[in-house]
Amino acid sequence: MTAVRTLLARPWIWSFIGALIVWLAAILFTGGYGAGGMITAALSLAVFMVIVGIGQMFVITLGPGNVDLSLPANIGLASAVAMKVMGGSNAMIAVGLVAALASGMAVGAANYLLIRVLRIPPIIATLSSSFIVLSIDIAYGRGLQIKPPPAFADFTNIQVFGIPILAIGGVVFAFLAGIALQRMIYGRSVLAIGQNMRAAWLAGIPVERIRFFTYTLSGALGGINGALLAGYFRGASVDIGNEYLLSSIAVVVIGGTSVAGGKANVPGIWGASLFLVLLLTMLNTFGVSAGVRLLLTGLIIVGVITAAGGQKTLR
Amino acid sequence: MTASASAETLARTGLRSPAFARLLRALLPALSMTLILIAIAYLNPRAISYFGFSLMLNLAIPIALATIAQMFVITVNELDLSIGTFVGFVACVTATWLRDAPLLGVVVLLGSIGVYAALGALIHLRNLPSIVVTLGMSFVWQGLAILMLPKPGGKAPDWLQGFMSLKPPFVPFPIIAALVIGLGVHVALMRTSYGAVLRGTGGNAQAIHRAGWSILKTKVTMFALTGLFGVLSGMALVGITTSADANLGNGYTLLAIAGVILGGGEFVGGRVSPIGAVIGALTLALAASPLLTFMHIPPDWQVAANGAILIIVLAARALISRREGDR
Asked: Could you state, in order of their start, the residue ranges of all structural domains in chain B?
């Protein structure tokens, strides 16, 4: 009983419960048909949200106003870079991944420079840089129709007992991110900066180095995500990352991370990603139109956040 | 601070003083717009005419209205990520119901302002992050818009179309509209006592509460005003484009935020400037297409040029703020 109670006290459990309810509603509708396939598909799609969601989580945890709006453009550019460098050849997969990672890190570092050197608020800085990255992507990726190398495309679709290998990787990655957040100096510093930047600075935390690292990390994860998406959907495109603008923020907040910063939650990102993906799957199985699907998604997001309640004020 | 007072301090303390920096900062939005206008005049002198301005600034009116809408929520330290899709929703209502069944259209539009007011109450009472709530609402508005108008279409009411294509003597309509919007909101928000209370909610909510004002009321007021200006923006947009599309306003969310910041607003602290916001919106509208077309920038790089202009203006602002030394 106490175990249940401590479990329920965790902020992230609700997103998993939500995901479970949505899944049950969906298979109830299909009469149990495709229940396993639904989970497999949800796991494959959720992992992409988890990857960028974790990057976004570290950024948001830095404190009010910190957010990375350049992820969609970043993902799009990285997907094009990865496909062009790989050039459809299995031998170049590793090089392509490194190139996508470097492209993402460059975007992240540029974001930080805008924020730090030019003192532009992060929302506008990442927005402006995303415009520039988008243009680079349009010019660079024009008419790009390179298929991913067969081995890479297969890798992104491998399943072990119905569990996509990417999802397993995503769980391991989330686990490591959780350790980095709660047990390592880096994560503790991010939390401290989010709670009170000045206090963190006075306590001797290298605030600017941590912020630089966090924006670069978010960029890097966007880059990796771009490469993986291009493999999974068998090709790069400019708008491949578009949905991750809103969903990366949504999974972070639904997962129990505070938008005011200083309080983060890694498991919740997995729960929230599964919840969002399964929600779309459920609405698709119900056969509703695109308009109704958007409408219900929005109402459920507002409903969930209202039910979960805001942060209790510390003072 | 009035201009004459700052000029006086300026004369007393010299050019390198914080007072000068503050004046410069207040003038920066106007300054950046002037620079862009000079660039346009240099590249294409014929654009600087009654007709040229009417064309170049046509789409600036809905952008300015959406920017003012965003400014209201930013005043109380919130952010509206749904204003773009809301403008699209309003555009769809205007191009369908407001034309075919005016009464129903008016009721729906008033109702949507009511929804905004209710969101303000919800966000305040449950202490919710406005970013997430409005993120969710952006899906709701878009969904409703698609349900109403699955394909681009509809038609603007004739009176609205007529109003938006007014050709007043001497001064082009967009400029008059921008002046009316900027000055009207300026007087209401910056020069009235309740306007000060509204801004105070962003500056120090606790102090305003202790002074006996209801924070719930101020937040609801600001969200309702956001809804109202969102409605005006959507209607103005349809009046110009004459038909609607569910995705018509999607770009406005980020454009409006950028406009507010470009115009000298801050994300927290209730420090906003309605006139600056309107100028910021006009600057963005001018920088968006006319300037780039005249500069012969290839379409691929137009978005990048937009981003670069934003960065340059904001960097200039940051440099000035640093000299001003107020943190």
From this structure: 60-317
